[in-house]
Amino acid sequence: MRTEGDLQDKLLNKMHVDENGCWIWEGSRCRNYGTLYHKGLTIGAHRLSYEAFNGPIAKGLLVCHSCDVPSCINPDHLWLGTQKENMQDCSKKGRGNHSAETKRKIRIARTGKPRGTYKKTIDLGYQ
After folding, report:
1. Is residue 120 part of a domain?
2. How many separate domains does the chain show?
């Protein structure tokens, strides 16, 4: 029989900690949110992390990110809220349609590097 400790281990084995303390999910993703197969369903890794480390999620509540990094599964960065509360948090932080700071955090979470440090320019000598 599986325990919550098994789920915690499963989550901890598929993440790394970034410079902001985010636990960045390294498994599969959908729209930048980590996902994994659990009990016959594909579930958000952040939701499973919240449940594994903090406890049950009441019906109708979202698991929101205080860090604004969708791939983060750090239970200390996750909080429960309604859709309205999540949208108010979004607006308050200026991250509707992804602000520049949120885009920077997402880019670093994905690549481990800030913008412009991972592209290579090739000069082929054409005129």
Report:
1. no
2. 1
